[in-house]
Q: What sequence folds into this?
């Protein structure tokens, strides 16, 4: 597995394990959502600085983004589609 594929696999795996929507991870890491999508599809080539931000946002060491999956490991699951509803705010008085 090439480095770009490892990063894509592990970012998605960790994000899904933590229940973080792709859009939220992108926002928290300061990345455009479409770029994050491309990264997970192996279309984007992230910089070292971005890998640092993603690892920090996910709460892992950068090395965790390069862990090889075991043979026969299934691809990371997909979170349910749809956005989470925004919390309702109380009336201002």
A:
């Amino acid at each position: 597995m090439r480095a770009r594929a490892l990063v894509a696999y592990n970012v998605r795996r960790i994000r899904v394990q933590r229940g973080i929507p792709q859009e939220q991870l992108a926002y928290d890491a300061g990345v455009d959502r479409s770029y994050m999508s491309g990264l997970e599809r192996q279309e984007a080539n992230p910089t070292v600085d971005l890998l640092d931000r993603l690892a920090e946002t996910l709460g892992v060491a950068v090395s965790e983004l390069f862990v090889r999956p075991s043979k026969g490991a299934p691809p990371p699951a997909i979170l349910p589609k749809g956005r989470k509803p925004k919390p309702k705010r109380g009336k201002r008085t």
Observations:
- The two ends are 58 Å apart (CA to CA).
- The longest helix spans residues 3-17.
- The chain has a mean pLDDT of 86.
